[in-house]
């Protein structure tokens, strides 16, 4: 809903609208990274999950009651027409490939932080910094999409992702270097979730874009499910040698960059 609803209400400033919507999630994630660690320390894991569930319920119900859709519901249960557009097909494949690697830093940052000697509290602060930078990346990329084009910004986003993984993540053995990676990769990571739906929305228009975005997100589900387990297997198989899976991450991002170039050609 957060990906498709802005399409129904915004056109010229669609990127900014998407950035603001995603900004809320980034701010919430920043706060929750610190809150969850405090809850675990004070009330345990079980009650931490209960508190999170109650918070989601308290915020989700009013939101569901207040939001309004502008476009009429589609008469077709499955609309495959966006795939007839070759540019959309390339965007779909770019998202399908890129999402495999996108959640790896946020999932493994606490593990890496503790492996270099940081406390669990400091590791939580690193995650809060990562989420804050994701929020910044979401807002900034949304504004930039209006000025430079959403597909151009998607290409820049994935290039920054690949560069930070290869040049910084693989050698982040101190707190200072880890924070540099956290900031830059967080910005790039957050920008993906704005630039991709904005690119689809610009391409397909307000009527076809909701179906297209739904298909794109459905394509992400495989990477959501398998990306982190594959990374975990690589860590175990290589004794946590980040050079190996940094290269894997880089090649995935390079594949997405190639697809973006093909779209722009």
From TrEMBL:
It comes from the Eukaryota. SUPFAM superfamilies: MFS general substrate transporter (SSF103473). It holds the Pfam family MFS_1. Its main location: membrane. It is a multi-pass membrane protein. It is found in: Membrane. GO terms for molecular function: transmembrane transporter activity. GO terms for cellular component: membrane. Belongs to the major facilitator superfamily. Monocarboxylate porter (TC 2.A.1.13) family. This is Major facilitator superfamily domain-containing protein. It comes from Aspergillus pseudonomiae.
């Amino acid at each position: 809903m957060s990906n498709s609803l802005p399409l129904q209400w915004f056109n010229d400033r669609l990127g900014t609208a998407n950035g603001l919507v995603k900004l809320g999630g980034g701010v919430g994630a920043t706060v929750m990274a610190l809150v969850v660690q405090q809850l675990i320390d004070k009330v345990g894991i079980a009650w931490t999950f209960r508190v999170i569930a109650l918070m989601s319920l308290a915020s989700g119900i009013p939101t569901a009651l207040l939001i309004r859709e502008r476009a009429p519901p589609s008469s077709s249960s499955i609309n495959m027409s966006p795939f007839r557009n070759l540019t959309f097909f390339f965007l779909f494949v770019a998202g399908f490939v890129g999402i495999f690697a996108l959640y790896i830093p946020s999932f493994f940052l606490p593990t890496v932080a503790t492996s270099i000697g940081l406390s669990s509290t400091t590791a939580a602060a690193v995650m809060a910094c990562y989420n804050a930078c994701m929020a910044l990346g979401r807002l900034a990329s949304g504004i930039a999409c209006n000025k430079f084009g959403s597909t151009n910004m998607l290409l820049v986003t994935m290039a920054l992702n690949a560069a930070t993984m290869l040049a910084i993540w693989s050698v982040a053995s101190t707190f200072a270097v880890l924070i540099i990676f956290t900031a830059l990769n967080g910005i790039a990571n957050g920008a993906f979730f704005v630039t991709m739906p904005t690119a689809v929305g610009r391409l397909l228009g307000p009527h076809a874009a909701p179906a297209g975005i739904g298909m794109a997100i459905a394509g992400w589900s495989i990477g959501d499910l398998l990306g982190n387990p594959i990374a975990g297997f690589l860590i175990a198989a290589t004794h946590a040698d980040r050079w190996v899976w940094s290269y894997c991450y880089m090649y995935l991002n390079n594949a997405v960059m190639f697809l973006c170039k093909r779209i722009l050609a």
